[in-house]
Structure formats: C-alpha cells, structure tokens
Specification:
The protein is an alpha/beta fold. It has helices at about 15-30, 45-50, 55-65, 85-100, 160-180, 195-205, 220-230, 240-255, 295-310, 310-330, 335-350; strands spanning about 1-10, 35-40, 70-75, 105-110, 125-130, 140-145, 155, 185-190, 215-220, 235-240, 265, 275-280. The protein is about 40% helix and about 20% strand. It has a ten-stranded mixed sheet, sandwiched between helices. The structure holds 1,4-dihydronicotinamide adenine dinucleotide (NAI) and magnesium ion. It comes from Kocuria carniphila.
C-alpha cells in the first residue's frame, strides 16, 4: 500500500518536530509494507518573506491531490513587524480548513504516565474534544460600521447551520460509541446563546435514540472549564462549537502536562479533500533552533493521520510507544531528536 502525503513543516520548531514525526512514521510503516510518498511544501512566514506568496490556488490544487497533510506550525515571533498580523491565520490556516472542509477538529487530551499535571488530583484524564471546524464565530461574518468613531459598532455573528451541526454531532456520537466509556458531553451556553445553543441541544437530542448505549450529558462552557480542572476524569467525548472548543482544548493541554504533548486532526470525515494533522502548538520562535522542542504532539498527530488512513493498528503502536517512552523518560532533559530516537526504539522493542 502506498499513500501520498503532503508535508508542510512551516516555521520555527515546525520543521524540528515534523522531522521526528516523519522518523517515527517511517519506522512504523516500513515493516508493515506501507510506503508513504512524501512531498514537502515550503509554506509559512519565511516562505512569505522570501516569495510574497502565502498559499496560492496552484499550491491548493496540488495539496488536494494528496491522501493527507502533515503540518508543523507557521508563524513568526509576535514582535516581528515584517509580517502583517493575521495573514498566515486567515490566508493559510483558515484557508486550508475551509477549502478542504475540515469540519471536525479532533483534539484528544490524555494524561500520560511520567508527565505531570498541574492539578492536585488529576485522576485518569483521557478524553477527546470534537470541535466544530468551519462555522461559528470563525466564519468571518461581521463588520465594522462608523469605524474609528466613538459610535463604532463591530459585529461578529456566529453561523451555525443544521447541516454543520448534524454532521458534527453524528461524528461525536459514532466516536463515543467506539470508546469504552461511551459518554458524550455537549458543551455550549444554551441559556444565553438561545439560538445556536438550542440548535446544538436539539440536534443531540435527535441523534441520542440512535445511540442508546451512549450516555449523554450537557454542561455550560463556564461550568465545563471548572470541571476540567476539578474533575477532568468525568469527560470522555466532548462535542462543542468552534470557539468554545478552541478555549477548552488549550485548557485541556494545560491539565494534561503541556502543549508539547497535544495533537490535533483537522478532519474532512466525508473524505472529499485531504485531512490535516498537526500539533496544537505554534512555531515557538522563542525556542526554535535550540533542539529543546518536545516532538510528541507532532508524533501523536502522525498517529492520528495513520488512523485516518485506516491503519488503527499502526496508530496504536505509536501511541503505545509514546506511552512507554514517557513512562520511562518523561522527566528527563532530552533533545528533540533524542525523543524521536527513543520512541523509535520503544516501537522496535515492542
Ligand atoms: P506557541 O505554541 O508557539 O508557543 C507558546 C509557548 O509554548 C512558548 O513559550 C513555546 O516555547 C512553548 N512551546 C510550544 N510548543 C512547544 C513544544 N513542542 N515544546 C516545548 N515548548 C513548546 O504559541 P505562540 O508563542 O503564541 O505563537 C508563536 C507563533 O506560532 C505565532 O506566530 C503564532 O501565530 C503561531 N501559531 C501557529 C499555530 C499553527 O501553525 N497552527 C498555532 C498557534 C500559534
Ligand atoms: Mg488555539
């Protein structure tokens, strides 16, 4: 079997962590007789500075032809005035998500043995956030009138379609049913956001009878942030909108021992375009070039990519190797490539 993979290493630590993810991918696929045919695309802040191109339609067409995209991170240092603010977010990251219809933003949160949570009693943290990826407050539906005057009005109107909510909720139920605890928590704010909130709640209510073995729960977003620090083990699958999901998954990264361990899948579950897998973190310009970046988030994202391609067994091998590696070496000072080498060794020892 052969897959064609687009690799977008990006800026800063992006190329450093992606190199380790590729190392681990090759180590797990080659013995299984699977070939990953990789094409690297130089996109990001440095590419824009060198060429003036953010992401051309020609490049989009090429990307569309791949089976999946492995992404590092893009962006310059926040104080780098050479890059106009928001251009990479809007014209690169959001362009990819919207054009390739990545309507599922999948973010697992796991507390691994050997990693330390800042929580006093973290318990067993193992949940996954199914965040909506193409609608809500990220739809860019708004504007500014009387701009610059004291009577200015800025609007940012959340878009929530029945189609968008249904495909999200259905995906979340299917995922909950496959997991041992089979619990689905809708997180929203339907007491105040009565329009969008009720559409979400009614959609969950409508699907629930088709999944009788899935326990359904509901929390307002504010309460959810409390429980995420006081009782995170109560969560299994969380389904939520685009902005709530963004905030909740940063918090989830923090309680599970840090941003260097959190992966993300931008998934088109209908497979009409390639899905994209990346660490949650950014390009970390503050530590770029020091070989101290933690590559585990990128390695776990690569495992999610293999699962999406239908190789759950190989994904599981990577996840187990990461688990064993963190258990053994989690608290040691290691360089980026040492972590990759150790995880490859853990794979081979299995
Ligand atoms: P960041 O995630 O890059 O860094 C935040 C902090 O976490 C920094 O102190 C960094 O050193 C640390 N950190 C991040 N990843 C780490 C890792 N793997 N190992 C060890 N430490 C790690 O977020 P920040 O600083 O807000 O953004 C930096 C640049 O990245 C900006 O240009 C931003 O726009 C971009 N960015 C890109 C994203 C993407 O490509 N999807 C996502 C988030 C930010
Ligand atoms: Mg974020």
């Amino acid at each position: 079997t052969k897959y064609s993979i687009a690799v977008i290493p990006g800026d800063g630590i992006g190329p450093e962590v992606v190199a380790e993810a590729v190392k681990v991918l090759d180590a797990v696929t080659e013995p299984a007789g699977i070939t990953l045919d990789k094409t690297t695309y130089p996109l990001g802040a440095e590419h824009w500075l060198a060429t003036g191109e953010v992401l051309s339609d020609e490049t989009m067409d090429k990307l569309r032809g791949h089976d999946a995209i492995l992404f590092g991170a893009v962006g310059a240092a926040p104080n780098d005035t050479r890059i106009p603010s928001g251009i990479l977010e809007r014209d690169l990251l959001l362009k990819l998500r919207f054009t390739f219809d990545h309507y599922i933003n999948l973010r697992p949160a796991t507390l691994y043995p050997g990693t330390t949570s800042p929580l006093a009693e973290p318990g067993d943290i193992d949940f996954v956030v199914v965040r909506e990826g193409t609608e809500g407050l990220y739809a860019g539906n708004g504007g500014r009138v009387r701009q610059g005057t004291e009577h200015e009005i800025a609007t940012e109107v959340s878009i929530n379609t029945a189609h968008g909510v249904r495909r999200l909720v259905k995906y979340a139920f299917e995922l909950a049913q496959k997991r041992p605890r089979k619990k689905l928590t809708l997180v929203h704010k339907h007491n105040v956001l009565v329009n969008a909130g009720r559409l979400y709640q009614e959609t969950v209510n409508e699907f629930a009878p088709q999944y009788p073995d899935v326990t359904v729960d509901y929390l307002h977003i504010d309460a959810a942030t409390i429980f995420l620090t006081t009782d995170p083990s109560r969560f299994d699958v969380i389904v939520t909108d685009n902005l709530f999901g963004d905030i909740l998954t940063d918090q989830a990264g923090a309680v599970t021992g840090g941003i260097g361990l959190a992966p993300c899948g931008n998934i088109n579950a209908d497979r009409t375009a390639p899905s994209m897998f990346e660490p949650v973190h950014g390009s970390a310009p503050d530590i770029a070039g020091t070989a101290t970046a933690q590559p585990v988030a990128s390695i776990l994202a690569a495992a999610m990519m293999l699962e999406h391609l239908g190789h759950e067994d190989l994904a599981d091998q990577i996840n187990q190797a990461v688990r064993r590696d963190l258990e053994t070496h989690g608290n040691e000072q290691r360089s980026t490539d040492q972590v990759g080498d150790h995880i490859v060794a853990a794979l081979k020892a299995a």
